[in-house]
């Protein structure tokens, strides 16, 4: 044991004098030579937060559908052009994770959002109201429903309110 102590002490002092280990040639991450860093996967315009996405242009309706342990909120909307995607119901007030807590008055306020097609996209043809509706659904457990008095859904053209 005594014969191993001196070499370990010398090695520790030698490595400590090399500066930061991240910059050292002893670090395996630096063994690649002059490789360039990988290109970023971030889109050119950056990421858009869900809270900044535009509202669906027209709300058609909302309804509750029964589930085994709660209800399903189904909301339908319409956009004048085809190509809207990633539709969702998001809370107006930021909440952690996927939490759906109502405001102090017992009303859960939601925004009906969707990503519009790119400007000048030739595939964004005029939409037909009979076939090109945008539908989203959000499940609510019985426990979540007990805390709610009503749900308020905001679109670009109007606000719908459903009591539980």
From TrEMBL:
Name this polypeptide is given: Lipoprotein
Organism ancestry: Bacteria, Pseudomonadati, Pseudomonadota, Alphaproteobacteria, Rhodobacterales
Superkingdom per UniProt: Bacteria
